[in-house]
Design goal:
Layout (H helix, E strand, L loop, with lengths): L8 H4 L20 H23 L18 E8 L6 E8 L13 E5 L6 H17 L6 H17 L4 E6 L1 H14 L6 E5 L11 H6 L7 H14 L1 E6 L6 H9 L12 E5 L6 H5 L11 E4 L3 H11 L1
Parallel strand pairs: 3-4, 4-5, 5-6, 6-7
Antiparallel strand pairs: 1-2, 2-3, 7-8
Helix pairs in contact: 4-5
C-alpha cells in the first residue's frame, strides 16, 4: 500500500531510479550525472526526515527516512546531532551491500547535511547559523561545523578521500563547503555536491585562492595552478534560476561567462531553468530528483568565482 504521508518515498520520491544489481559491475549508473544527482538529493532528504522522525517520535517501523536510503543500498552509519537542541542536522551514510556489488564510482561513505527546518526549536538554531553565514560568511565557529568535520575525518581515515563525498542543501551547503575547505587546505580533496547554495559573496578575485594554496605571482600561470588545485576538489553547484536566494547571481552567470584563464573547469555549475511555481519549490531539495530537468551546465562562471573567493577567505 502507498503511504499517505506526503514525505514518504513512495509518494514524492523519484519514479525512475535504478537500483544496484549485478549489471552495475559492467555499467555503473554512478557515472551518470543525473543518477548521481538524484541519489544524493534523496540522501539529503533522508537527513531532513531523520529529524522529522525524531520530532514525531516515530518508531523504526513507521520512520520515513530509511526508505530514502534503501533503493540505492545505503544505510545510516552515524547521525550528527546539534548539542544545543538535540536536533539531527546531518548523517554519515555507508554502502550496505556486498563490496563486489558496489557500483564503480559509488562512494563507500557520504556525509549528508540538511538545511533549515521551519518547525519547533530547531528553526531557531537553524536561523542562528543562517545569520552567521550571511553576516560572517564563515561557519567554522558553529558546533555543527565541528561535528561534521569530525565525522568526515573518521570516514576519510576508514575509506580514503576518493571513496567519500559530501552533499548538502541550503544551509547544509554552507557547512559542506566550509568542511570541504578545511580538508582542501590540508590537500585532502573530497568530492562535494551543493544544492541551492545561498549566494553570499559578490566579489570575484583570485588573490585569496593563491594565498591559501601558497601560489605566488599575479600571472596566468598562478591562476592555472589555482584552477588545477580546485579541480581536484570536485565541486558541483546546483542552483535554480528562480531561487530568490541566488536569482540575481543566476541571471548574471547565464549572461556573463567567466574570463578566467583556466583551460579546464575548476568547478561545475548546473542551473535549473524550469520555472517553479513557488519560492519553496525553487529552493527545495525535491526538485533535484525530478525527471526531465532542464539543466544547463556552466563549467566556469562568475558565480563559482564568487563562492570560491568567499570560501577561501
Amino acid at each position: 500500500m502507498t503511504s499517505r504521508d506526503p514525505y514518504a518515498y513512495d509518494v514524492c520520491g523519484p519514479k525512475k531510479l535504478s537500483t544496484p544489481g549485478v549489471t552495475e559491475i559492467f555499467s555503473s549508473s554512478w557515472y551518470d550525472g543525473d543518477h548521481k544527482r538524484k541519489v544524493l538529493a534523496c540522501f539529503v532528504q533522508a537527513v531532513y526526515l531523520l529529524e522529522l522522525d525524531r520530532q514525531g517520535n516515530r518508531t523504526p517501523k513507521t520512520a520515513l527516512a530509511p526508505k530514502w536510503l534503501e533503493p540505492s543500498n545505503y544505510k545510516l552509519s552515524e547521525t550528527l546531532v546539534d548539542e544545543r537542541d538535540g536536533s539531527i542536522f546531518g548523517a554519515v551514510l555507508e554502502w550496505a551491500g556486498y563490496a563486489v556489488l558496489r557500483p564503480r564510482g559509488a562512494p563507500k561513505a557520504i556525509l549528508a547535511l540538511r538545511g533549515n527546518l521551519i518547525k519547533g526549536l530547531t528553526m531557531i538554531i537553524d536561523f542562528t547559523d543562517d545569520i552567521r553565514l550571511f553576516a560572517c560568511e564563515n561557519l567554522e565557529g558553529s558546533v555543527r561545523f565541528s561535528a561534521a568535520t569530525k565525522a568526515l575525518k573518521s570516514s576519510v581515515n576508514r575509506f580514503g578521500d576518493c571513496n567519500v563525498c559530501i552533499a548538502g542543501h541550503s544551509l547544509g551547503t554552507g557547512f559542506a563547503i566550509q568542511v570541504g575547505k578545511a580538508f582542501a587546505k590540508q590537500k585532502v580533496f573530497i568530492e562535494t555536491h551543493l544544492f541551492n547554495l545561498p549566494s553570499v559573496s559578490l566579489e570575484c578575485v583570485w588573490n585569496n585562492l593563491k594565498s591559501i594554496f601558497a601560489f605566488s605571482g599575479e600571472d596566468d600561470t598562478g591562476d592555472e595552478k589555482v584552477c588545477a588545485t580546485i579541480m581536484k576538489w570536485g565541486l558541483h553547484f546546483y542552483v535554480n534560476k528562480s531561487d530568490f536566494l541566488c536569482s540575481e547571481a543566476d541571471t548574471e552567470v547565464i549572461q556573463n561567462r567567466s574570463t578566467s584563464s583556466c583551460n579546464s573547469p575548476a568547478a561545475k555549475l548546473f542551473v535549473h531553468s524550469k520555472e517553479k511555481k513557488s519560492v519553496s519549490d525553487a529552493h527545495g531539495i525535491m526538485q533535484w530528483w525530478e525527471d526531465g530537468l532542464m539543466l544547463k551546465a556552466f563549467p566556469n562562471s562568475k558565480l563559482i568565482d564568487r563562492h570560491l573567493k568567499s570560501l577561501m577567505s
